[in-house]
Amino acid sequence: MIEMRVAGIALDAVTRSPIVLLKDGSDRRALPIYIGQDQARAIIGALEQQKPPRPLTHDLLVNLLEAWEMELERVIIHSLQDNTFYAVLCITQGEKKKEIDCRPSDAIAISLRTGAPIWVMEEVVADASIPVDREADEEERKAFRDFVANLRPEDFIQRGGLGNENESS
């Protein structure tokens, strides 16, 4: 899994739909997730640390967690199916742990209010992320190509007798 953070909200240039943008710790990959207007407002409100006069839905959920002495340990965005992301809230209460199915936009809005980390499965990042730092990506690819080009067959031979356990039988 890859820990990611909310980089901000953007609007799709064509559809004008809001997108929450997650970035990895190295700022090399970004994961755009299309969300609704209400979810965008909830995420922006959390990013700007706005306190509404009355609790909104995500604030209410955080209040419930606190009242029942539960903690949002982390959010996991675990799959992408038919252009739809799936997430869970990982909640603990004492020794008990539960994973609660959740839309990623709601999970993100709640995580921002609690300070819980956002984790994304590697295959989701591989399938849906966009490169942010193409130059660094190209340097990494070049270093790997150079490494592979300099490999010799003897680099693959196991040393120290490993793999020879069955020679005497």
From TrEMBL:
<dbReference type="Pfam" id="PF02577">
    <property type="entry name" value="BFN_dom"/>
</dbReference>
<protein>
    <recommendedName>
        <fullName>BFN domain-containing protein</fullName>
    </recommendedName>
</protein>
<dbReference type="InterPro" id="IPR003729">
    <property type="entry name" value="Bi_nuclease_dom"/>
</dbReference>
<feature type="domain" description="BFN">
    <location>
        <begin position="1"/>
        <end position="132"/>
    </location>
</feature>
<dbReference type="InterPro" id="IPR036104">
    <property type="entry name" value="BFN_sf"/>
</dbReference>
<dbReference type="GO" id="GO:0004518">
    <property type="term" value="F:nuclease activity"/>
</dbReference>
